[in-house]
Amino acid sequence: MTSRLRLLPAAALAAAALLTVTACTTSPPDRETVQLTAVTPEAAVTTAASGTAAERAVETSRVLWRSSPVVVLAPADDPDDVAEAAEQGERIGVPVLLAAAGVDVSAEVDRLGATTVATVGGSTSEDAVPVDVDDAEVVPAADLEPSGDPEADSSTLVVVSGTDDAAAVATARAAGAEVLPLPEGVTDLQQDASVVSAMGASEADGTLVVGSAFADRPHLEWSVTAARSGTELPGGGQRIFPDRRFVALYGAPGTSALGVLGEQDVPATVQRAADTAASYQASSDRPVVPMLELIATVAAGDAGPDGDYSNELDPERLRPYVQAAAAAGQYVVLDLQPGRTDFLTQARRYESLLTEPNVGLALDPEWRLAPDQVPLRQIGGVDASEVNAVSTWLADLVDAHSLPPKLFVLHQFRSSMLRDRAAIDLSRPELTTLVHVDGQGSQPDKQATWRALHDGAPEVAWGWKNFYDEDEPMLTPEQTMTEVSPVPDLVTYQ
After folding, report:
1. Which of 13, 85, 156, 403 could covalently link to 206 via disulfide, CB atoms 3.0 to 4.6 Å apart?
2. Per-residue pLDDT for 124 more than 80?
């Protein structure tokens, strides 16, 4: 057999280890020192997500290995052989491949420069090897001994979904990569708090996700980089619903006229939010997280210097609330009442706050006025195109900063406030959209509005508002949880 051993110059090796190969023969074995090259992928996020374990084993090898004169090979349809191959590959420190119909294992053996194929299950016959390796020597994997030299070192976090990828996992561990098996049933990297914590703790440079569950996953790179940040939302993890329920205080800093949030200073506001949320926990089937909904721009009765009938608060005036809420494990939503200007123009003013992971955004179309309208004289409304412009900008901001998803709230108590609601874009996973039904008055009227706005609604989360003074009567926490159906994801107090 001709040797096809291809060694790279030492200076070109990204990571290397030495391996002693001993072939089992009737005469004393020849020993040759060969060099392995494991690498860290150039891309921040790579995938091995094809439909079969054999394909994913090849993909993992391609990502993490530049060369290896030895590979371990097993038939993909024999679980015992696969398990033994994985054990041997990890012990020896070389890639593990699986032979299966339609998978070009020979091409990967050739790419790696492998001159030795290590088999499991007792057969060393070249005819028994299920792929074309005519130029390679076939030996039992058990007869190969790793040297005592340092292991390969690929600075890669390998996240594995399911239990079918023993070969890929062994290939990753042989490369010196860090392997993170996902908990059973978990395929969303951002859902489970323990996964986010583990990914955030990793110091690896790159990330490889392994598993067919990741095939064609939209915005996977953002999902991975957000999870790698390790930043969790109040309540844990990085998915807003259905893992929590919010209970919020609504208002503007420094004034009680616009809601209960402004009736006390920052520390007392945070404490009041915590107490209000706690009153719901006994009736809630989810953890209840306190929230502050801060009115960042306040609709005004006069045009003001800029003529837009909206007073914009300085972001730095809101920052103490954001910081105190974050320290207390609370979420914040910035509420926009734009008057005669548009929502996107106002949202951009608060970009510095919206880059905080615990801050979302609310649009209040009641106060989105036409050029000839004035607050409190008419009830405004907004087209889906303007909502979509804001959501695209906000989702791009989340993506650019590798943030967890943000809550995107749309206030509505009559159909005209969200014109062409069916055209609102809900495709961006960086946002969780919630329609907040914030009408006031008698409970029969409020319930009728709640049902009417649910009719034909898109698939969104839902919010309910309790008014201390205007509701007749205001529901208790238990009543809110039992009499409002479906049960709200967010309950706000004003």
Report:
1. 156
2. no
- Let me know: does 331 contact 290? Beta carbons within 8 Å: yes
**Whether residue 462 sits in one domain with residue 435:** yes
Coil, strand or helix at 390: helix
In a domain, 152, yes or no: yes
Residue 134: its pLDDT value, please? Answer: 62
Residue 252 and residue 218 in one domain: no
Q: In what order do the strands lie in the sheet with 96-99?
A: 96-99, 70-75, 116-119, 137-140
Q: What is the CATH number of the domain that holds 411?
A: 3.20.20
- pLDDT score of 329 more than 70: yes
In whole angstroms, give the CA distance from residue 83 to residue 61.
17
From residue 154, give the alpha-carbon distance in Å to each of 2, 17, 41, 95, 322.
30, 11, 8, 13, 39
- Which of these ranges, 150-164, 209-223, 239-253, 348-362, has the smallest mean pLDDT? 150-164
Question: What is the spatial distance between Cα 271 and Cα 268, in angstroms, rounded to a whole number?
Answer: 5
Residue 4, domain member (yes or no):
no
Residues 436 and 482 occupy one common structural domain: yes
Instruction: Give the whole-angstrom CA distance, residue 72 versus residue 90.
Output: 10
Are residues 203 and 294 located together in one domain of the fold?
A: no
Cα 445–chain centre separation: 39
Of 253-257, 328-332, 376-380, 475-479, least confident by mean pLDDT is 376-380
Judgement on whether residues 220 and 163 belong to the same structural domain of the protein: yes
60 and 129 assigned to the same domain: yes
Is 173 in the same domain as 90?
yes
Tell me which residue range forms the domain holding 351. 245-493
392 burial class (0-12, 13-18, 19+ CB within 10 angstroms)? middle
pLDDT, tens digit, 9 for 90 and up, residues 427-442: 999 999 999 998 888 9
d(CA 32, CA 259): 79
**Where would I find the beta strands (DSSP E) of 258-405?**
288-299, 310-312, 331-336, 359-363, 382-383
d(CA 317, CA 424): 31
What is the β-pairing status of strands 65-67 and 70-75?
A: unpaired
Q: Write out the two tokens for 402.
A: 């590798």
Q: What is the pLDDT of residue 234?
A: 97
211 and 256 part of one domain: no
Mean pLDDT, the chain, as a whole number? Answer: 89
Cis status, amide bond into 242, omega within 30 of 0: yes
Beta bridge partners of 289: 246
Domain assignment present for 5: no
- How many domains is the chain built from? 2
Look at residue 2 and tell me whether its pLDDT is greater than 50. Answer: no
Q: What is the largest CA-CA distance in the chain?
A: 100
CA 460, CA 195: separation in Å to the nearest integer?
26
Decide if 258 is inside a domain: yes
